[in-house]
């Protein structure tokens, strides 16, 4: 498929009107990180042609008509016949989604209408142009209302950032996904062993065995990664990657009888403190005994 497309073409023949784009559709769209982005093109006289959305940077077909042609389930196509609008919705937008998208009509040659998506983070004031800032706080746009209606899904691995387990025990990692309007479509676990730059998805059918994942979906979705009979090779960084949230990571240390320096320091400090307390109690006891002995000595003399 070529991107050398005719931008907008008005109908040239009254008897056989050709599809064309309504150029009033916005060419630039700004979305918030973690919210939904809505890219829209309005097509007149579509007839028996189809409308597709293409991501420009990799020429990837995202949708054709109302069908989605990508494994990333954040992308969804919506058609509004009453307005001739074809909307590409990108759920839980991330900064990597920014770029040019093309709405294409299946004519010969293909006709294309490009829309530029900007994804900004309101926590970074410099990230949002001043000209756009007021739009996010105004009441005049449905798209911005939709963006604010979304919650920002967040993934967290409990007990991080470091976990220490004994060799031979079970590694139990718990990843919680909160603030999600619906459970994630999938959750992948990765193991970075400090050797591979591109860590593989943890396989439950690997030759290692003893690896299982339990996922409970609900208002808070929880995924449990269980690795039995932990070995030193199981040490490393583990990441929980839901379809609708940023990656959460934790570093696991499998110990072969040793203890982390922090734990050793804590134990030593505790032993020394206990020893000092015992010495102090003994000194107080001896002092009290001597004091009482001195005080009672005159009484014993009188009694004689």
UniProtKB/TrEMBL annotation:
CDD domains hit by this protein: IgV
**Keywords in UniProt for this one?**
Membrane, Transmembrane, Transmembrane helix
Transmembrane residues, as ranges?
A: 274-294
User: Can you give the residue ranges of the Ig-like domain?
Assistant: 19-116, 153-251
Concerning SMART domains, the annotation shows: IG, IGc2, IGv
Q: Which InterPro entries match?
A: Ig-like_dom (IPR007110), Ig-like_dom_sf (IPR036179), Ig-like_fold (IPR013783), Ig_I-set (IPR013098), Ig_sub (IPR003599), Ig_sub2 (IPR003598), Ig_V-set (IPR013106), Zig-8 (IPR037448)
Q: Pfam families given for it? A: I-set, Ig_3
Task: Spell out the protein name for this chain.
Answer: Uncharacterized protein LOC108557164 isoform X4
Source gene?
LOC108557164
């Amino acid at each position: 498929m070529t991107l050398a497309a005719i931008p907008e073409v008005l109908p040239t023949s009254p008897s056989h009107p050709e599809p064309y784009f309504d150029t009033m559709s916005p060419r630039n769209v700004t979305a918030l990180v973690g919210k939904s982005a809505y890219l829209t093109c309005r097509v007149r006289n579509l007839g028996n042609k189809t409308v597709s959305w293409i991501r420009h940077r990799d020429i990837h077909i995202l949708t054709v008509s109302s069908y989605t042609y990508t494994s990333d389930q954040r992308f969804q196509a919506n058609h509004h016949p009453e307005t001739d609008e074809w909307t590409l919705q990108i759920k839980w937008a991330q900064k990597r989604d920014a770029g040019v998208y093309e709405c294409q009509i299946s004519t010969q040659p293909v006709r294309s209408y490009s829309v530029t998506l900007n994804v900004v983070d309101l926590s970074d004031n410099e990230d949002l142009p001043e000209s756009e800032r007021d739009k996010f706080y105004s009441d005049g746009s449905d798209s911005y209302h939709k963006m604010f209606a979304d919650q920002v899904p967040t993934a967290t691995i409990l007990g991080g950032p470091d976990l220490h387990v004994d060799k031979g025990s079970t590694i139990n990692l718990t990843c919680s996904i909160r603030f999600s309007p619906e459970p994630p479509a999938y959750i992948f676990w990765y193991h970075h062993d400090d050797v591979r730059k591109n860590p593989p998805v943890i396989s439950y059918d690997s030759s290692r065995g003893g690896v299982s994942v339990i996922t409970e979906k609900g208002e808070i979705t929880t995924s449990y990664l269980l690795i039995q009979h932990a070995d030193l090779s199981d040490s490393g960084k583990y990441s929980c990657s839901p379809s609708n949230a940023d990656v959460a990571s934790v570093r696991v240390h499998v110990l072969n009888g040793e203890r982390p320096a922090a734990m050793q320091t804590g134990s030593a400090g505790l032993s020394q403190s206990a020893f000092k307390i015992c010495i102090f109690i003994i000194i107080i006891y001896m002092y009290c005994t001597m004091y009482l002995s001195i005080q009672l000595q005159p009484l014993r003399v009188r009694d004689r």
